[in-house]
Structure formats: C-alpha cells, structure tokens
Amino acid sequence: MTICVIGAAGGVGRRVVAQATAAGHTVRALIRTPEQADMVSLHGAVPVQGDLTGEWQTVLDGADAVVWAAGGGASGNFQGIDGDALIRVADTLLERGPRRLVVVSSMGVDRPQQMPPFLGDVLRVKAQSDAHVQHSALDWTVVRPGGLIDEPGTGLVHAAPTAERGSISRDDVAAVVLACLDDPATVGQTFEVVSGDDAIPEALAGLGG
Questions:
Q1: Rg for the chain (alpha carbons), in Å?
Q2: Is 23 helix (H, G, I), strand (E, B) or coil?
Q3: How would you class 40 by CB atoms within 10 Å of its CB: exposed for 0-12, middle for 13-18, buried for 19 or more?
Q4: What share of the chain is helix, strand, coil (3-state, %, to 5)?
Q5: CA 54 to CA 51: how far, in whole Å?
Q6: What is the dihedral of CA 108, 158, 12, 70, to 10 degrees?
Q7: Which CATH number fits domain 2-205: 3.40.50.720, 3.60.150.10, 3.30.950.10, 3.40.630.30?
Q8: Rounded Cα gap, residues 65 and 101, in angstroms
Q9: Is the pTM of this model over 0.85?
C-alpha cells in the first residue's frame, strides 16, 4: 500500500511514517523544510515538500490512502491547520482520490466543556473539520486519542466511541492508525482511544460495525 502522511514531521506523524515503512508500505510524506525531508528519508519515506496553506497536492500522487496527522500545535494556528486545511484535504480527496482517509483528531471533540480549558479552542475547531469529514462520501475513520505521551508503545489500548480520560503513547496511536488502514470495518467509525488492556486488533473489533 502507498500511504500519504500529512503532518509527517509531527509527533504522531513521524511514528506513522516509521511504522508504515517498517511494515513494508510505501510512504509519501508531506514536509515543509529540508530538515524534515532528511528526517522522513531516514525512515525510508519519500519526502514531498509542500504547504497546507498553498501547494501540497502532489504528495497524493499514487497514494492508496491518506493519514491526517497535522495540527496547529505550537503555532496556535488551529483554524488554519486543524480546521480549514483538513477541510481542503477532504474536499481534494473527493475530487481526485484516494478515498481512504484516517484522521488523527483528539479526545473530547464532542464535549469540550469536559476537557481542560486550554484545549477548548482547538477542540471546537476540530469539531467542525471532523464533522466535514464525517459527512463526506470518503472512506473515513476518525481516531481521537487521549493525552499524548512519548513512552514506548505497549500495543495495548482501550477504544470506544466515548472513553474515560486518559493518556496513550504516540507509538500506540500510530499503530492504531495503521491497523485502521488494514481493517475495512473501521470505515465510518469515530472512536476515542487511550492506553488499556486490549491488543489493538481486538480493541478495533470491539467497536462493532
């Protein structure tokens, strides 16, 4: 499979790149700088330079699926990246493909009032762009991880439409994303995921169709 990773230099994105290439997939990685190109190349990915606010579409060439792992992050440009850019990506995929899209979103998008106040702005923006994807004709999956940590992954998670607040390794989020690409039953699913006791395939199977 050829996977396009948008946000390939981020904490989750670079782990998706590394795990996907290790599994034998071809990865086309959208990056913004030569330094980021060097980083993704070390993992065997094909770096494609672009900017989500401008020209970026060539990263889709030959792709069978797209992983969205981008975010406004430290820039604080939540509306521009988490919101407007994801909407543009989804619309572009509808026009030219591929149709398979896995979005890495965030726990609490549907209940920002229950989340820490500093997350409120980004959660409200993500709610709009998630909804745009969910109401599209794409073959989408929306993954909403809990608090992200850099501990090594365990491969054990808890996944549910709504989960108790908790944390999860970025390694495990990447593994969940790749498992979704391998599991057609996750198409049309939105779920939250935190560290837990279930192996990832079993956790996804437990979501139902």
A1: 16
A2: coil
A3: buried
A4: 40, 25, 35
A5: 5
A6: -30
A7: 3.40.50.720
A8: 6
A9: yes
Kindly state the tokens that stand for 19.
């795990």
Q: 52-87 in b/e burial notation, b at 16+ Cβ within 10 A?
A: beeebeebbeebebbbbbbbbeeeebbbebbbbbbb
Round to whole Å and give the CA distance between 133 and 188. 10
The residue type found at 29 is: A
Those residues with Cβ within 8 angstroms of residue 202's Cβ, 6 or more apart along the chain or in another chain? none
**Per-residue pLDDT band at 118 (split at 50, 70, 90):** confident
- The amino acid at residue 136 is S
Domain locations along the chain: 2-205
Residue at 205: amino acid letter: A
Alpha carbons 180 and 173: distance in angstroms, whole number = 11
Residue 162's identity, in one-letter code, is: T
6 within 8 A of 30, measured Cβ to Cβ: yes
Kindly tell me if the per-residue pLDDT of 152 is higher than 90.
yes
Contact partners, residue 109, CB within 8 Å, separation at least 6: 123, 126, 127, 130, 144
| pLDDT score, position 99 | 97
Contacts of 164 (CB under 8 A, 6+ apart): 194
